[in-house]
């Protein structure tokens, strides 16, 4: 009989589900999405060949097989974590954080403050990029964590949402066609939302200015050369003139999310909890149905 290897991450997820009594809270604790947690439990059940939990409105309960797996999982996870604690320093020598340039001034100060308290001897290496690239860099292990605009193609932990707004100099003629736009380079999630909204209303436009720097985008807008679109928090922080004109299409909200490297050091995961607090200090803590 061929031996099977059980993924230790599946065991950790299983134990966390039993501990939190919630797939959503498990996702938050392990920095994954709720569908990913469901898939991991299903994969573990497929591996052992039997259901591991039962769910009703009030509780998540291990089955008979689940109790056996739970007993072994606690020992395996305990030995794994003790080995890593003995072999690795608690804090990494360098922490690589990524975020889009337009989020840096708003979210980075609080994250750096938290890092200074929790990881005082760690070098903090900050990287600016568009959100889609940041997601790929976390997945590749080039970054430890990233704060980014959520992309439907990249599973991430939703933290908060911000409405997109139009911004322009008071003298800019936003009735002129084609509408001149100042946006991030191609690949930016917000750029896609803006051009899609204009196309759906058959509004002629052209990208007259583009950059990977938020300050350069703002310079083009402030100079009256183009209209831009950005999260309201970014616009307000920069003191931009927000345009509310029925001739312009409404823009969606963007989800701001957190990604953490799959094999992140426990100290990095601890810092990520602080990042969540910085992103959404007033997040709802209402209970959920399991």
From TrEMBL:
Pfam families: HTH_1, LysR_substrate. The lineage of its organism: Bacteria, Pseudomonadati, Pseudomonadota, Alphaproteobacteria, Rhodospirillales. Residues 6-63 form the HTH lysR-type domain. InterPro entries: LTTR, LysR_HTH_N, LysR_subst-bd, WH-like_DNA-bd_sf, WH_DNA-bd_sf. PROSITE patterns: HTH_LYSR. Belongs to the LysR transcriptional regulatory family. This is HTH lysR-type domain-containing protein. It comes from the Bacteria.
